[in-house]
Amino acid sequence: MSRGPMSLRLRLFLLILSPLLIVSVLLGMWRFAVAQATAEMLFDRGLLAAALAISRDVSISEGDALSPRTRALISDAGGGEVFYHVTGPGGIYVTGYAYPPIDSITASGPGPHYLQASYRGQPVRVLRMSEPTTIGNMTGETIVTVWQRSAERDAFARALARRAAALMIALMATVAIVVWFGVQRGLHPIRSLHDAIALRSPNDLSRIQRRVPAEVSGIVATLNRLFGQLDQSLKTHQAFISDASHQLRNPAAAILSLAESLPEVDDPVQKRFREQELIAAARKSVRLTEQLLSLERLRYGGALREEPFDLNDIAEAVCNDLGPEVLVRDLRFGFDRVDGPLALRGDPVLVGEAVRNLISNAMQHGGESLTEIAVRTAAEAGFAMIEVRDDGQGLSPNNAETVFRRFGQLEPGTGSGLGLAIVRDVAHLHGGTVTLEKVSRGACVRIRFPLPQSNANLRENGRSGCA
């Protein structure tokens, strides 16, 4: 069973405590080394004090045994049991333990010499010093040797280290408690923000007004921006559903009315006429439904399908498909393609739908003066261009905002008001633009698609504007 993600509180706790723990371990190692050095210094000074006291007592007593006061001083100054050995001028034994650890002592000269040696199988720290002394009628060097077990020094160093470790452990425990509850307190604004968001309903997409720390303000700003986009998207969907239901109501009612009246018609000619009206109404309804689905696919259909295609081939295929319908209305219909390919990447089905809508829009809204529809492709300044021109009643560039809006119509007609909206969305989805060009007669709609970099240097061919 996989474990869940680590909580932010625990993550911050570990991030703060981990470096402190590492520092405390390094500090403990340093403190133990300092404790050992301190123990060495203190015990060496104790050995020196004991050696000086022994040398003074021997000099005063002229070789007699140490006084009780000196022995007490040696015990107090040494911090533990101290052994000593004294020889007078000529190497005569004066006092102390008979067998010092002399095998390892090679130092010479009057100053104190510290050495490591072994005494009765145990490591010891040895101090040897000599000074001129007169005992009786003999004058010479008195050598004082004192030593102490190293174990006593190590025990003292460990005691110092344990006290330091106990202090650091207590300090780390205190810091851990403070950090644990401090992080909990510091995360209170985030928990409060979570509670505020959890209380919201699906219908509440208003901005979050709660005050939060600077580190969280970016998240809140992103959430507010997302809420605004969702709210706008929902409003757009609601408006689209309302408009679509309004647009579909009339065709559906017309189909139902024609279907109900058809059984009552006995005249074969009239019945045939009603059947043609029913078929036309059904086709209009299907076309409107297809356009609505296409528009929603463009707005909310996700990623664009990417594949290479030639704009010339797409335009020619659409013209061939709609050619018979145009000719039935006794209109002149022409297609002028650029020399060479217009290679693009995108969704050829959507591009073909855009071209189809331009031609259908010209047929539906050209009016009684419409006699010609011309389709042309060209390459200009890094763009592949296709334009549809007619000589009908015309469209002014001033009306572009209205005609390219969904369900936008300049005047009541048989169209759905979706054709040019689909054209605009297809162009934008492919990184292009669609414009209404100013012409002396009729209407001219132009779509520009940016050519891929490899085809951006295609030569211009044909006119750059509508005649």
Description of the structure:
With 467 residues, this protein is α+β, with helices and mostly antiparallel strands. It has 3 domains: 8-174, no CATH class; 214-296, Helix Hairpins (Orthogonal Bundle); 303-455, Heat Shock Protein 90, CATH 3.30.565. The protein is built from 10 helices and 12 strands. It has helices at 8-61, 68-78, 150-186, 188-198, 214-261, 268-300, 311-328, 348-365, 400-403, 419-429, and strands at 83-87, 93-96, 113-119, 122-135, 138-149, 307-310, 332-336, 343-346, 372-380, 383-390, 433-437, 443-450. The strands form 3 sheets. The chain has a 5-stranded antiparallel beta sheet with strand order 2-1-5-4-3. Strand 9 and strand 10 form a beta hairpin. Helix 1 (8-61) runs antiparallel to helix 2 (68-78), helix 6 (268-300) runs parallel beside helix 10 and helix 7 runs parallel beside helix 8 (348-365). The chain is rod-shaped. Residues 103-107 and 454-467 have low confidence and may be disordered.
What order do the helices and strands follow?
HHEEEEEHHHHEHEEHEEHHEE
**Helical content, roughly?**
40-55%
Q: What structural class results from the helix and strand content?
A: alpha+beta
Q: In one word, what is the shape?
A: rod-shaped
Number of domains: 3
Pfam families: 2CSK_N, HATPase_c, HisKA
Protein name: histidine kinase
Organism: Poseidonocella pacifica
Domain Histidine kinase: 243-453
